[in-house]
Amino acid sequence: MTARRTLAVGLALALTAACGSDDGTVAPPDCEVAAGTGPVMPATGLCQQLSSYRLFTDLPSQTAAPELTAYDLAVPLFSDYAVKHRWLYLPPGTAAAWDQDDALDLPMGAMLVKSFAYPHDLRDPGAGARQLETRILMRQPAGWKAASYVWRDDGSDADLAVAGALLDTSFIDTSGATVTNRYEVPNTNQCLNCHGEHLAVMSPLGPKVRHLNRLAPDGSGNQLQLLIDAGRLTDAPDPTTWPADPALDDEAAPLADRARAWLDVNCAHCHNPTGPARTSGLDLSFRQTDPSMWGLCKTPVAAGAGSGGRFYDIVPGQPDQSILVFRLESTQPQIRMPELGRNLVHAESLALIRAWIAEMPGACAQ
Amino acid sequence: MRLLPWLVLLVPLATAACGDDGDNNPCSRTSGPCTAIPVGATTEAIQTAFINAQPGDTIGFGAGTYVIDRDLSLTVDNVTLAGAGSGSDGTILSFATSTGAQGILITGDQSRVEHLGVEDTPGDAIKWEGSAGVVASDVRVEWLGPPKADNGAYGLYPVQCQDVLIDTSKVRGASDAGIYVGQSDNIIVRNNVAEENVAGIEIENSTRADVYGNLSTHNTGGLLVFSLPGLQVHNGAGTRVYDNQILDNNTPNFAPAGNIVGLVPTGTGIALLAGHQVEIFDNDIANHKSIHIGIVGYNITMRPFTDTMYNPYSDSLYIHDNRLVGKSLEPSGPLGFLLIMGMQELGRDPATAGVSAIVWDGDVDPAKADGNGDLMSQYAICIKGNSLDGQPADFANLRVPLGNGPTPTTDLAPHDCTLPALPAVTLP
Description:
- The complex is a heterodimer of chains A (366) and B (428).
- In chain A, a hairpin with a 5-residue loop joins β10 and β11 (178-185).
- In chain A, strands 3-4-6-7-8-9 form a 6-stranded antiparallel sheet, covered by helices on one side.
- The longest helix of chain A is centred in the last third of the chain and has 13 residues, at 255-267.
- Chain A is α+β, with helices and mostly antiparallel strands.
- Chain A has helices spanning 9-18, 188-195, 209-212, 223-229, 255-267, 323-329, 347-358; strands at 56-58, 63-64, 68-71, 83-89, 96-97, 111-119, 129-140, 143-151, 158-160, 165-172, 178-185, 233-234.
- With 428 residues, chain B is mainly beta.
- In chain B, β1 (34-37), α2 (43-52) and β2 (58-61) form a beta-alpha-beta unit.
- Chain B is elongated and about 65 Å long.
- The interface between A and B is large, with 71 and 83 residues.
């Protein structure tokens, strides 16, 4: 027999299950973290259980530790209508440094925590929710590290899902209809598909100034100003220079600004000049100023069935002739965009993108 | 990977309990470190093995069908994915029920995929992106059933890669190109079979490629060398195409509309679009309804582009000593219509005399033209020593636009030249 390497835990479990054996499930060792209280993380590697990070003082209710700061984003990534809660953890005595365009420079030991849940009924916040997963992005000495933890049914803890998971879920939407979804928890490589937006180096996506420049979840003030006032954010320029994303439903903001902001958040982690979709030539980042690069009359390169028989990514005035709209409307794996983390159509953003294209003047060559 | 003693004990017991260890050991073909993936393993188990792999590892698959329900990805460098064979009795990774966009995405460097089959991926089958060192050997990619538009676009698909070898593999059914190498450098595609794809083999916006010893048959188009605008690698250059069998590529074009490959006329042997420094020689090219060898610029597509670094013209081509067989009597599609119009301007009925064996649209790069409007000698399109049914192969320069200005010509004299042979590709 060759020098066979031992199997991964998941494989061994699958193997034993396939052979009809229930025994032998020895709990693997958890991570090395300092004893004590308050949030903590390992210097390398990942913990097997979410509880090991001590992020929540009560796990079933996800009551955040006082050291965590809840925050919201002006334009969140669409995640199949999952409701998301976000927290920032900065180690004692540390602060983030301002960055005008990219993510804030967060200190070693920082953690970004995001919980995903499906409310049972989107019309009734009091009806409870199914907790799906909690993701952590943590800054270790070797760089940013990502992990997802899938909640146990009883809410007692959440377990590391290196290979991701598929969760069969259902909820009642705002129209009262029951929606079923095989919700996808990403695997570790898929974390990098989005969070490797620049040259496949893992980095945060959410905590950028233009996303954070809004009211805090508790309504106590501007999130950036609150961090500055608390001494947790340095090097901020004059507030009049802070960029801000207009929210999807902010009708006071120009349609084009809202559309470009939404595309930046939902697409540009791949579709930027150093992202995974750079090979397509389509750049949907807010920085791109050449309309042909963000899709105007741009021919597809490797779209396959994703073209939908249409000739250009965006045909001005013609949402139904635009490949961009076709791909946002589709739920088929080989067609839909984004490729990852979306099984359902996001009606609200689709309406925005359609309206934006419909009002564009001009035409493409035929 | 950390060696856990309990697992070492557990695994042989478990596999022994399954009773197939001896004849179907997924690691039997390797002497190095190897993670065995037994038939029946879950997608999560396979993905976990990919994530936990260490450089130098092999991930071994046994003979049998693995049902995969999501896309797989490999980011670790220097990993081999090895199956027990690419045939129906070998290793089959079936993505027929997958919810992932593609089959396998590899971004690690120095990867190797060998002796396995990949079937029915919703989108592309195996994609390598940004990798240095790509090897696919004895790999079969197939969309089962008749060719259809909702098959995945690309079979074996390295893009923005360095040092690529696609060898002794087979791709069938891709709705774009079976073997597609894009925006890459230093490439060998050899001894493969591509059949019933829209394009059998395509080299696009790539530099330094050798394509030889392949059989490309029953596709819409046998072999394409294209450069397209708007990409990070702006222009391809340096492709050699030789000793290939390019036969009977008459499958009706089934690409979804909007894709550039949808323009390839059904029944195309070799097509060059904005090809630069391409040498095509010693190929057998037979039985194509539209055209054996077609050369065009990008402008013929009537598609707009704004890429100022892109060169839309074909130039510096050397096409020699190819053996062509059969008249092209039924050109089709928009470019086939152009061929018919061109032949008619020449007073030739394509339905009886056939389309000229080798046709250039005549779109000359003004920056590379001499005072007569012809390509300067170092950028020439040289065509010589080609045969059609044992006679010298005929030629047409359509001198587009048709019906306006100079008429097409069949004069080969301006193309009676040679260009220096392109260097052979060597892989490290």
